[in-house]
């Protein structure tokens, strides 16, 4: 490592996020819940096109959040909101009503959204050191 640099990203102390970043992540969390609600309605209404539309919107939100915040937390915040909303919609009420039926499209939406959350959080923009496109050691 060079002596004048800031060191490895792993060696940096953890700092709490700024107020703007916290507000952005909270907004993404709520947006994830809204996309989960809308996707659960659309996927059942127009099968199979609605399922593809719901999963595309979900992937767009997760990946867009990662690139907008330039961190993996930008993909995880809407994913957390999406999972909470979708899981709450799968529970039955005391009257016996439920939103998700026991069909293949519902399971594809549930599992596909969770897989997309993992993929977008992994592929999304992680913390990268500043500087040019050259190797770090030069």
Number of helices: 4
Structural class: mainly alpha
Number of strand elements = 0
Secondary-structure element string: HHHH
> What spatial form do the alpha-carbon principal axes imply?
elongated
Strand content: under 5%
Question: Which assembly state applies to the chains in this document?
Answer: single chain
End-to-end CA span: 9 Å
- State mean pLDDT (0 to 100 scale): 81
Main β sheet profile: none
Radius of gyration: 19 Å
Describe this structure in words.
Helix content is 62%, strand content 0%. The chain has 138 residues and is mainly α. It is elongated, with a radius of gyration of 19 Å. The N and C termini lie close together (9 Å).
Topology:
Blueprint: H1 19-45, H2 49-69, H3 73-90, H4 104-123
What features would you highlight for this structure?
138 residues, mainly alpha, elongated, 62% helix
């Amino acid at each position: 490592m060079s002596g004048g640099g800031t060191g490895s990203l792993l060696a940096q102390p953890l700092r709490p996020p700024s107020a703007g970043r916290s507000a952005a992540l909270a907004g993404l969390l709520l947006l994830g819940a809204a996309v989960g609600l809308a996707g659960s309605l659309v996927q059942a209404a127009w099968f199979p096109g609605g399922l593809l539309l719901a999963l595309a919107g979900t992937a767009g939100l997760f990946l867009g959040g990662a690139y907008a915040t330039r961190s993996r937390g930008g993909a995880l915040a809407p994913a957390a909101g999406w999972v909470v909303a979708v899981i709450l919609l799968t529970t039955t009420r005391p009257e016996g009503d439920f939103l998700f039926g026991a069909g293949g499209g519902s399971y594809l939406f549930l599992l596909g959204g969770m897989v997309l959350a993992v993929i977008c959080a992994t592929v999304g923009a992680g913390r990268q050191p500043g500087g040019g496109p050259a190797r770090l050691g030069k």
